[in-house]
Amino acid sequence: MGSRKFLAKESAFAIAAAAVIYFLLDYPIRISGAYNFPTGIGIKSFLPFVFGLYLGPAGTIGAGIGAVFTSFVAKAPLIEWFSEVLCVLIIGFGMWFLWFTMNRDGNVRLEKPKDYRNYILLVALLSAISGLGAASIEGLEEFFPTFLGYLVSGYLVSGLIVILLGGIFCLEPVMPSWCEKNSDVVFSLTKDVGLDTVNEQIEETALLKGIGMKRVFEIENCLEEVYLRLRKELPDSDILGRMEIGTTISLRIFAKGKNYDPLAAGKEEDEMDLAGLKLIRHRALRASHTYRNGENRVHVVV
Fold first, then answer.
1. Exposed, middle or buried by CB within 10 Å (0-12, 13-18, 19+), for 128?
2. 116-161 tens-digit pLDDT
């Protein structure tokens, strides 16, 4: 029951955040009269693609609510905001459903030729369907500008954002029930399983994927330092983790117990204690800690 409440809270936050972002990107431009494109097209046109891929139904619904609210405040004709909401829902739900139907491993990364091909096809298809939806509501003359507006923003803006979110930030998307997260390395550090065993897994997987040993040592260094700091504060906790290896290496570590951030310097730590923390900051592209449901979650990207 607690887990369901937490998921519901996350979904509510995603809906609210998506609605606010959509409004903030759309309303100032719309009232300025800076362009003469259809109401549904503008700077905000990339959002349904990104929200659909990463936030799923909640993000798509939030974008739809943002479109309704913006049109209401801007006093747009009813037919225009209805057309815009339809396009947002087509693209958001379409990206989420079709992408994860073709990529059941749950990853949203544009790295391989297959990834780019699927993304290009989906953007073109959903932009065309949105154009048809707008044309059916507002008239045939709305097809081409709607299609072209979403197509361009889907390629030039959304594509770059997806590369950034999937490659550097390694953001985890909201996945449908038919997908299962496919990690390259899954491990559990207990009293019986040490770092040596996990490092062997990492090195074997990296060798198969053609990853250089320099980057392997970097992620192993980060894993070791986070592990030692967690083990010092949470001696009885099993430390779980998983890793995805691609253009960047994403390491996620989970440890139940009290709220402890291994990436933050303690008041009583000396220079020797902080050496490991400095190493993590030097090696990682980004590192973060969150505490949810009694569990510490550390994410390191190298």
1. middle
2. 999 999 999 999 999 999 999 999 999 999 999 999 999 999 999 9
Please state whether beta strands 249-256 and 185-189 pair in parallel, antiparallel, or not at all (unpaired): unpaired
**Collapsing DSSP states into helix, strand and coil, what is residue 72?**
helix
- Sheet with 249-256, side-by-side order of all strands: 185-189, 239-245, 249-256, 295-301, 286-292
The number of helix segments (H) and strand segments (E) in the chain equals 9, 5
pTM score of the predicted model: 0.88
Strand 185-189 to 239-245 pairing: antiparallel
3-state secondary structure of 147: helix
The SS3 of residue 227 is helix
Structure tokens at 214: 């320099």
Core vs surface per residue 163-178: b (16+ CB within 10 A) or e: bebbbeebbbbbbeee
